[in-house]
Amino acid sequence: MKASIFRIPALISLLVGSSFLLIPRNPPFIMIFSQAFQALILPAVTLPILILINKKSLMGEHIATPSMNFGIVCVFLYSLMTSYFAIAELFQ
């Protein structure tokens, strides 16, 4: 926890979170914005998982099965859809 790889994202999160106090908005808007932002994180997480779980050099004999790949692709497509709706609803 003392390494910069953990401290830098924590500092960025603290600064971004604290900056919302300066925005003259109602708390419900900030709560909706934070939920919409979380929807944008899911595609950024599932795509690297899909890539890494299929690397034979990394996973060895434990690479993903076709059904697992199908499930991860479905999650990725669903996350893209929810991200679109989150952005569309936020700017409406």
Describe this entry's structure for a reader.
With 92 residues, the protein is mainly alpha-helical. It is 78% helix and 0% strand. It has four helices and no strands. The relative contact order is 0.11.
What labels describe this entry?
4 helices, mainly alpha, 92 residues
How many helical elements? 4
Distance between the first and last residues' Cα: 40 Å
Number of strands: 0
Structural class by helix and strand composition? mainly alpha
Order of helices and strands: HHHH
Radius of gyration: 18 Å
Low-confidence stretches: none
Helix content: over 70%
Q: How would a textbook summarize the main sheet?
A: none
Query: So what's the overall shape?
Result: flat
Strand content: under 5%
Q: What is the average per-residue confidence, as pLDDT, rounded to a whole number?
A: 86
Oligomer designation: single chain
